[in-house]
Amino acid sequence: xxxxxxxxxxxxxxxxxxxxxxxxxxxxxxxxxxxxxxxxxxxxxxxxxxxxxxxxxxxxxxxxxxxxxxxxxxxxxxxxxxxxxxxxxxxxxxxxxxxxxxxxxxxxxxxxxxxxxxxxxxxxxxxxxxxxxxxxxxxxxxxxxxxxxxxxxxxxxxxxxxxxxxxxxxxxxxxxxxxxxxxxxxxxxxxxxxxxxxxxxxxxxxxxxxxxxxxxxxxxxxxxxxxxxxxxxxxxxxxxxxxxxxxxxxxxxxxxxxxxxxxxxxxxxxxxxxxxxxxxxxxxxxxxxxxxxxxxxxxxxxxxxxxxxxxxxxxxxxxxxxxxxxxxxxxxxxxxxxxxxxxxxxxxxxxxxxxxxxxxxxxxxxxxxxxxxxxxxxxxxxxxxxxxxxxxx
Length: 393
Ligand SMILES: *Cc1c(COP(=O)(O)O)cnc(C)c1O
What we know:
Elements: H1 2-12, E1 17-22, H2 23-37, E2 41-45, H3 47-51, H4 55-64, E3 69-72, H5 75-83, E4 89-92, H6 101-106, E5 110-113, H7 116-129, E6 133-138, H8 150-165, E7 169-175, H9 187-205, E8 212-216, H10 218-223, E9 231-232, E10 259-264, E11 267-271, E12 276-277, E13 283-284, E14 289-294, E15 311-314, E16 317-322, E17 330-335, E18 344-348, H11 358-364, H12 369-374, E19 382-385
Parallel strand pairs: 1-19, 2-3, 2-9, 3-4, 4-5, 5-6, 6-7, 7-8, 8-9
Antiparallel strand pairs: 1-10, 10-18, 11-14, 12-13, 14-17, 15-16, 15-18, 16-17
Helix pairs in contact: 2-4, 7-8
The structure holds pyridoxal-5'-phosphate.
Pyridoxal-5'-phosphate is lined by residues 45, 47, 93, 177, 217-218, 233-236, 243, 370.
């Protein structure tokens, strides 16, 4: 009976909420991306704690799946991967002058430079640790984010070429990032491709000989082969989520979502019709019903914007968040379905049991799947299946 579910959960000592990460899905997704990339190599993007999945564990699984590079945003992330002993070529692309450039260069972390100050910082670090810095020059090709504009590109190339001639740096890559790869066929993709080819041509004319040109995120890896060049940088697809959710579900892209987020009901009670639910009483019961309390809230990454909208699965049936999502909890109106404390609530997963996907939460919160998984908080324990978190398969 319903009551027994709760007792069983207690006996098994299962956490009141958890994110289960299927590392075999990560490996399979990466090998699918390798296939899509053709002759290009694959850099698995594991920034933001591996999009919330656990950075070192997914990095190892991605390497086992065929990725030869890892990509992160900040230097601290790169140094954490090195400290964890994760092998592979490793690029960090979001750097500031105060970062620990010496440590990064000393540990062979490859670094992006989108301005001359970054080349100078790399040169100083190379001098300090007596090892050349490996640089990827970032061109602004239309995203309007990082990278040197066409006006500044020549000065960046000249500075980098001088530093290379002096032996302090080696320019191993030229790269940029697409603004609208998730809208396949958008004319801005072609414009950015042309700007990127031109930036790469100028680099060669400046005497630089990068090993790799790279431009593609997950969406371009899966939908825009012209943008693959020598190396692709998928993030979201590594975790089995669709970068084009309105066009294709993960399974249609050969991907399998790796994270399943579940919780156990913390309280279950009957309430009369007209009961206001949660802060602001945005939900009111239409008739006598059962309310179930889910111990996950916006501090755990459940978007407050998904109040009255986020979908969950309880005992094989879909329900919607009732009222406002709180910091630690939200409420479900379970109707007359039998329910007990300890019963499992599935927020999202691969869909095997009819549970919602991260993309459904993204839709409910007017966001994207990247944000849904990346914001699952540190309070939610990660557990691993399909290989151990330390990388042994
Ligand atoms: C985050 C990021 C990626 C990965 O993007 P996805 O859409 O998750 O595939 C690739 N390159 C850069 C520079 C990024 O910041």
